[in-house]
Amino acid sequence: MRMSRAGMWGLAALVAALALSGCANKGRLAPVDDHSMGGARGSARVLPGAENAGKPGYYTVKPGDTLIRIGMDNGQSWRDIIRWNKLDNPNLIETGQVLRVAPPAPEVAVVRPATSPITASATTPAASAPAAPAALPLPSAAEEAISFQWPARGNLISGFDESKNKGLDIGGKPGDPVSAAADGRVVYAGAGLRGYGNLIILKHNNTYLTAYAHNQTLLVKEDQTIKRGQKIAEMGNSDADQVKLHFEIRRQGKPVDPAKYLQGN
Question: Mean of the pLDDT values across residues 129-144?
Fold first, then answer.
């Protein structure tokens, strides 16, 4: 059966339309259902402790932070920070997470007036609120009067500079003794803080910490009680370009010039 000229034109138009339709759909993907964001589009997961951001006694984690550095910068033991925050895995802290870095305030017992048995039986006991962390107290006169001695004998390589050098660098030979500058307790002994090598941190009271870096050998362990002048390490060049002791004094976590505290000792 011969098709008329009009019918042929109509068929050609239909074929062209189908071809264009196929080109339009070629390469078009199905809508993506992104479950990786954990819910509605644009929603963000709330990090632990976010409600406490900016409050006294709390710290917001920054990129590159470790618990050891957070503890040193806030004058605390990193193990205490783990305990106060009930951290299951201390190696997993996130940028933006808010950590308690001051001990919780002691709970105060509430004394309620005596009531009749009928009133008491009808009263529901109030739930006790969790203790909030206390802001760092002002140092006492006894804490401020602590006496520090030089931790090593040797030439002073470089002095304190708040922006470039947070302590003193004392030169020496490999194996030279490193001594505790004051009585204290070891809150860190290891090589987990970049730039410090084999490091010891002593906590002397609620106000002062001292740090001893770049050691060759560590002679003490965490939680060990140390006496002023006790040998705690041997000088070395771990994570340093020469043999030296890098020594810091931190007052409530902030580096201060050790020379002002060591003079006359």
Answer: 60
Biggest CA-to-CA distance, the chain: 120
Closest alpha carbon to 219 in 202, 240, 242? 202
Q: Which structure tokens are listed for 12?
A: 């050609």
Cβ burial, residue 247 (10 Å; 0-12/13-18/19+): buried
Residue 43 has what pLDDT?
A: 55
Cβ atoms of residues 226 and 179 within 8 Å: no
Confidence band, pLDDT 50/70/90 cuts, at residue 263: low
* Bridge partners of residue 59, in order along the sequence: 99
pLDDT at 16 (0 to 100)? 46
Tokens 């602590």 appear where?
Answer: 146
Check: CB of residue 191 under 8 Å from CB of residue 238: yes
How far lies 123's CA from each of 109, 111, 223, in Å? 18, 15, 46
* Whole-angstrom distance, CA of residue 75 vs CA of residue 79: 12
d(C-alpha 58, C-alpha 98), whole Å: 6
Helix H or strand E segment including 22 = helix 5-25
Structure tokens at 256: 């201060």
Conformational region of residue 243, where left means phi above 0, alpha means psi within -120 to 50, and beta covers everything else: beta
Q: What share of the chain is helix, strand, coil (3-state, %, to 5)?
A: 20, 25, 55
Question: For the chain, what is the mean pLDDT?
Answer: 79
Contacts of 102 (CB under 8 A, 6+ apart): 56, 57, 58, 74, 76, 133, 134, 135, 136
Among the listed residues 180, 85, 241, 119, the one whose alpha carbon sits nearest the alpha carbon of residue 189: 180
Give strand pairing partners of 21. none
What are 137's two structure tokens?
A: 């107290």
Three-state secondary-structure class, residue 84? helix
